[in-house]
């Protein structure tokens, strides 16, 4: 079947497309990178979260690189990058550790140039001993040196103790040394038996305190602290006492002699006793046979010593 065309029609169609964003981008002036950080010093505690924020301007859009201690930071694990707006950027550090403290350098680069900025992160941490004290054993007159390394933020205050009492700093024989690196030393010159004891060091900052302990033993050959009377004149039936004070480490053994022959405690005529450093010989009811030279000999594994008197 054929249909005859009686009229001719003209049909037209038009469309308009506007991409505003693209137009704006094409009209934008090129700009070298510019970094802006409102807070250049951030602070957090160990185990917390840190957010380092900055504004990044520039066209074409700059490439941004973060570095810490010379090492580039990449997203992953505890580190994440956030882009809140077109020109806003943040580095988020979760479960912050002491080693995360320091300067973070930001570098932004595009075809027109570059810009850099630095944000400092302070990580507060309780005191912690990196090295511990060890027990010390030495001879008298030697130097005693106790040393520890302490870390913490703020920098801890360090105090030394002996047998629970604060050690006075920088006396004639005892000195303390502190280094910026966190190394602390207690130095005792020309050790004596009195330096034997329990030593402790306490590190304190605003977060908490911690302590370390050690024992110091000073050894020496025996020595007389007090000697006996050198000459005694007595009457028959008198009681005579010879007494000395002796010390050493280990504690010395004591022997008494008359004219080279060792005396033994008999509970009657001859009595020998010890009370700490005090060593005593008592002779009761003196007679002419007791006239002679008396001596006291002290000894330990490091040597011996002798003191004499005459009656």
Automatic annotation (TrEMBL):
One of its GO terms (cellular component) is plasma membrane. It is found in: Cytoplasm, Myofibril, Sarcomere. PANTHER family: CONTACTIN 5, IG-LIKE DOMAIN-CONTAINING PROTEIN. GO terms for molecular function: ATP binding; axon guidance receptor activity. Belongs to the protein kinase superfamily. CAMK Ser/Thr protein kinase family. It comes from the Eukaryota. This is Ig-like domain-containing protein. Residues 33-122, 127-217, 222-311 form the Ig-like domain. Pfam families: I-set. The keyword Hydrolase does not apply. Keywords: ATP-binding, Cytoplasm, Disulfide bond, Immunoglobulin domain, Nucleotide-binding, Repeat, Signal. GO terms for biological process: homophilic cell adhesion via plasma membrane adhesion molecules; synapse organization. InterPro entries: Cell_Adh-Cytoskel_Orgn, Ig-like_dom, Ig-like_dom_sf, Ig-like_fold, Ig_I-set, Ig_sub, Ig_sub2.
């Amino acid at each position: 079947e054929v249909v005859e065309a009686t009229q001719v029609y003209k049909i037209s169609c038009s469309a308009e497309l506007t991409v505003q964003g693209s137009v704006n981008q094409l009209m934008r002036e090129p700009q070298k990178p510019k970094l802006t950080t409102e807070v250049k010093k951030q602070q957090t505690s160990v185990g917390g979260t840190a957010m380092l924020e900055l504004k990044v301007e520039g066209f074409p859009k700059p490439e941004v690189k973060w570095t810490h201690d010379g090492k580039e930071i990449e997203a992953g694990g505890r580190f994440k990058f956030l882009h809140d707006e077109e020109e806003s950027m943040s580095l988020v550090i979760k479960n912050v550790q002491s080693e995360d403290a320091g300067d973070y350098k930001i570098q932004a680069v595009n075809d027109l140039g570059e810009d850099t900025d630095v944000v400092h992160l302070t990580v507060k941490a309780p005191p912690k001993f990196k090295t511990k004290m060890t027990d010390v054993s030495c001879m008298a007159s030697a130097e005693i040196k106790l040393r520890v390394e302490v870390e913490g933020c703020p920098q801890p205050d360090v105090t030394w103790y002996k047998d629970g009492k604060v050690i006075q700093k920088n006396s004639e024989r005892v000195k303390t040394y502190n280094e910026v690196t966190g190394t602390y030393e207690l130095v005792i010159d020309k050790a004596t038996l009195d330096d034997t004891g329990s030593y402790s060091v306490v590190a304190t900052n605003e977060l908490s305190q911690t302590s370390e302990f050690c024992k110091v033993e000073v050894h020496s050959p025996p020595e007389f602290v007090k000697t006996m009377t050198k000459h005694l004149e007595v009457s028959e039936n008198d009681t005579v006492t010879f007494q000395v004070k002796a010390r050493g480490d280990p504690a010395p053994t004591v022997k008494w002699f008359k004219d080279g022959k060792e005396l033994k405690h008999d509970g009657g005529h001859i009595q020998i006793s010890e009370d700490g450093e005090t060593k005593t010989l008592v002779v009761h009811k003196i007679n002419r046979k007791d006239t002679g030279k008396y001596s006291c000999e002290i000894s330990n594994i490091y040597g011996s010593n002798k003191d004499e008197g005459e009656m």
